[in-house]
Design a protein that fits this description.
Helices cover 16% and strands 52% of the residues. It is α+β, with helices and mostly antiparallel strands. It folds into 2 domains: 1-34; 46-179, Lipopolysaccharide (LPS) transport protein A like domain (lipopolysaccharide transport protein A fold, Sandwich), CATH 2.60.450. The protein has a 6-stranded antiparallel β-barrel with strand order 2-3-6-7-5-4. It is elongated, with a radius of gyration of 27 Å.
């Protein structure tokens, strides 16, 4: 083989070695970018999550910041700068919940809403509480905290709430306030 041929093979070997070294460095860089223990796997900004069932939108969650901790043994996501959840019923009426902070637990699908939690119902009802849980799959809302609920028929302050998202089925603890009651007559 001529020295010119050897030079060609040497150039090819150098190019290949450079290629493999750069690939190896790329893998090292990717490994060093793995989240440290307790750190989020990812952070996203201005997010919008849509929950559907049978091709019908059930809820839309929006937030300025989303931190993904699915890399931890207790997989969850946080919304450290607040969030808004818009529930849609089968008639596309909206019930909206806002909170200063939220945690979504992946295993249970429960969202823990904290700080200035406000639920504005499509019928004009208003619920205010410091903490509220939303079970997305069951479409159920509950809290052990004190809450205020008002609409044209009610002005209630109570502790403990356990209800569906339409407030058609609910249980509460000790309550005070005014409630409109329709008396049934038997004839």
């Amino acid at each position: 083989m001529s020295s010119l041929g050897n030079l060609h093979y040497i150039k090819v070997a150098i190019i290949m070695a450079t290629f493999f070294c750069s690939c190896d460095k790329g893998r090292t860089a990717a490994i060093s970018e793995q989240p440290k223990k307790g750190q989020p796997a990812a952070i996203a900004y201005d997010i919008r999550m849509v929950y559907t069932d049978s091709l019908q939108i059930k809820a839309i969650l929006t937030a300025p910041e989303h931190r993904d901790y699915t890399n931890l043994s207790l997989a969850h996501s946080t919304f450290p700068k607040g969030l808004k959840v818009t529930f849609l019923d089968e008639f596309q009426k909206e019930n909206v919940i806002t909170a200063d902070y939220g945690i979504l637990y992946d295993a249970t699908g429960i969202i823990d809403l904290k700080g200035n939690v406000v639920l504005q119902a499509s019928d004009g009802g208003l619920l205010e509480t410091p903490q509220l849980y939303w079970a997305a799959e069951e479409e159920w809302i509950f809290t052990e905290e004190t809450f205020n609920f008002s609409n044209e028929d009610y002005a209630v302050v109570a502790t403990r709430l356990d209800t569906n998202k339409e407030f058609t089925k609910f249980r509460t603890g000790k309550l005070t306030g005014t409630v409109a009651v329709q008396e049934e007559t038997t004839e």
